[in-house]
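WARN retry 2 of 3 for item q-0093 after timeout on previous attempt; input resubmitted unchanged.
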Amino acid sequence: MLPLVPVALLLASTLTVDSSIPDEPGQDPLAPAQSGMVQCYGPDVASHTCSLIYVFHRAHDGSWIRTATILPDQSQPMTVAVDTPVTVRQSAVCGTFRRDQVMMAKLSYFERQVPADRALPFLTQIADAMAGAFDREICTRFLTVGGVLMARPFMTDKNLQFPDQRVIWVRADAGYRVQPRGNKG
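OK item q-0093 returned
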């Protein structure tokens, strides 16, 4: 059985951190994504690694799709990339996880995509572990604390907040990856 990250984590010269990240109500928390920036949660600048990376894409209808790349097991070089539609509401980024989204996720091992038929048992296990978060909206507000951008996720149908997490916006081509720490591979 894989030890899994909590759902809230679902998800140098090359580093460009956007210091104009909004922290006031009414501002667009995804403004940096419009210029191709991605969110790196739990950044380690020295190794260019993140515990989670969110990439935001515009769909044809103008809505947002968030691709969350996560490490389901912090000791293995296996990542899962899950697409979820999100909206911006009251300065928060909100989305609802569903089982089918996890089952359609892309599983990679050592940065090589695993064929769908071989990925299915792992995706089923991940989906089973995340079952308590399905069909519940999770929103994230961003605030600056002591000059550091922090993500504050919460469930909208419960008065439940998760721990704040450090986030940086980086260029998509800056070389940041989701991988176990200390693994430079």
